[in-house]
Amino acid sequence: MTLPARSLKSTSNELPKEIVDLVAAIGELPDEIRDRIEPMLVRVVESTKRRRRILQLVQDALSQLRLDMKYLMFDLEATRRERDEYHRRLEEA
């Protein structure tokens, strides 16, 4: 299993520096020790990537919610102004 050596370059921008350093350090260990540690390292790397993707999805959803709220507030204010204008016209008539 050589995941750390192959995917280090592709995942280095997706993973925290500490994990990238850990991958590099484990890659330098003797084969017998590295073979025992790599399965756990793969799980940690995948878990970290999954958490980062989930966090990005949550951040995107919050950004969209904020934007939707701004549109709703704008629409509410416009509706209130229109209502007030109609009330004023009714009172004048």
How are the elements arranged and paired?
Layout: H1 3-11, H2 17-27, H3 31-92
Helix pairs in contact: 1-2, 2-3
Number of helices: 3
- Helix content estimate: over 70%
Distance between the termini: 84 Å
- Rg, rounded, reads 27 Å
Poorly predicted tracts of residues: none
**Shape, per Cα inertia axes:** rod-shaped
Mean pLDDT: 90
What is the oligomer described by this structure? Answer: single chain
Per DSSP E runs of 2 or more residues, the count of β-strands stands at: 0
Order of helices and strands: HHH
Largest sheet: none
The structural class is: mainly alpha
Number of domains: 1
Strand content: under 5%
Q: What would you note in describing this structure?
A:
By secondary structure, the chain is mainly α. It has one domain (3-92). The chain is 88% helix and 0% strand. The protein is built from 3 helices and no strands. It has helices spanning 3-11, 17-27, 31-92. Helix 1 runs antiparallel to helix 2 and helix 2 runs antiparallel to helix 3 (31-92). The chain is rod-shaped.
Task: Describe this structure in a few short sentences.
The chain is mostly helical and 93 residues long.
Task: List its traits.
single chain, mainly alpha, 3 helices
